[in-house]
Amino acid sequence: MALLDLFAASSVPVVKVLLVTALGSYLAVDRVNILGDDARKHLNNITFFVFNPALVYSNLASTLTFESMVELWFMPFNILITFIFGSALGWVVIQFTRPPSHLHGLVIGCCAAGNLGNLLLIIIPAVCRESGSPFGDSDVCVKYGMAYASLSMAIGAIYLWSYVYNIIRVSSSRSSREVEIIDSPTHKSSSSGKSLTDPLLSETEDHEKGLGHGFESKPHQVSVSDNIKQRLGSVFSKINLKKILAPSTTGAFVGFVVGLVPQIRGLLIGDEAPFHVLQDIALLIGDGAIPAVTLVMGGNLLRGLRGSGIEKSVIFGVVGVRYLALPLLGIAVVKGAIRLGLVHDNPLYEFVLLLQFAIPPAMNIGTITQLFGAGEMECSVIMLWCYSLASVALTIWSTFFLWLVSYTDEG
């Protein structure tokens, strides 16, 4: 297969995403102001609570079966690997670049979570329909490609809204508490001299407590098991199931149930299903998610053009992780899994697994930062650079991955 054909098959999907993103940026400029700050906020909320759950559910329920899940069991682990190694590399970026504390969750999230849903749903069908595609019949390719992309989107939604969502939440709340402590009267009085936090006063109070209660003057010995129980109890007490079970995650669970339980599937899926109108409505609503999220991303990228206080080293670190370190790691992981027999011989499936390591950060990270009101400008700048460079990086990696799976298939 000619390299030029592979390059064309890889570049067309990326160009489509960039064109819709450019439209979103145009609609957000001041003289047009169709997609201003308020409009993007409302559209974000609609996407978060309505479009994304419907998209995840409808694609998952209609394309997944128990048989296909048995064949695709490695994909959840593959995505988990991207999150684990992306988080570790993001932590390394933080250690070298030293961004403000409220951006730690954003940096780790951008390194860990790729655009596993919307972008794959655009790229895979477009690659399948290109004349130079190595995946055979376009209709069959699209059918199975959408199943792979749907599963990727569902798993990505679960990881994103249960992991990245809470990392950014904790990071933003910790930063808010630090600001409150600095601005509090108690902290200001402590800096002036005698205060509740004065070390000498604290020692005096502790000494007096020890004189009053002799048995408390001895250090309290806490066993390792008690310490672990206390820490686990503290963690679980802070877990908010409503925040972990975000709408997209709930939609993924419902899609799994409908797709994998034959009795329920027979009621909803197919033209002869008695309640197929519910599935049709979900498909109709879910179709709005991709253009809505992409347009909002374009509007947010416009804010990135105006700049922010984020260091260039942070941007370079995130770009390096997403477009250099993770793709190279992905080749080793996927090829190792194939060699060990963990992944069946399927060029399209291998291509999707490889592509999961080379995509830009998830667009919903921008939605999360807007929900918490922390790091919005910085997120816009990171997304601007990542998606601007995606036109080159993603095209190059897609071309190489297509050649890799074609070479393996011919071999």
UniProtKB/TrEMBL annotation:
Keyword entries, A-Z: Auxin signaling pathway, Endoplasmic reticulum, Membrane, Transmembrane, Transmembrane helix, Transport
What processes in GO biological process is this protein linked to?
auxin-activated signaling pathway; endoplasmic reticulum to cytosol auxin transport
GO terms for cellular component: endoplasmic reticulum membrane
Q: How does it sit in the membrane?
A: Multi-pass membrane protein
Q: Residue spans with biased composition (Low complexity)? A: 182-200
Keyword match Membrane: yes
Identify the stretch(es) annotated as Disordered. Answer: 181-201
Record's subcellular location = Endoplasmic reticulum membrane
Q: Where are the membrane-spanning stretches?
A: 6-29, 41-60, 72-94, 106-127, 147-168, 244-261, 281-302, 314-333, 353-372, 384-405
Primary location class:
endoplasmic reticulum
Q: Which family does it belong to?
A: Belongs to the auxin efflux carrier (TC 2.A.69.2) family.
PANTHER family reported in the protein's UniProt record: PROTEIN PIN-LIKES 1 (PTHR31651:SF33), PTHR31651
Q: What does this protein do?
A: Involved in cellular auxin homeostasis by regulating auxin metabolism. Regulates intracellular auxin accumulation at the endoplasmic reticulum and thus auxin availability for nuclear auxin signaling.
* Protein name per UniProt: Auxin efflux carrier family
Biological source species: Salvia splendens (Scarlet sage)
Q: What lineage, starting at the top, does this entry show?
A: Eukaryota, Viridiplantae, Streptophyta, Embryophyta, Tracheophyta
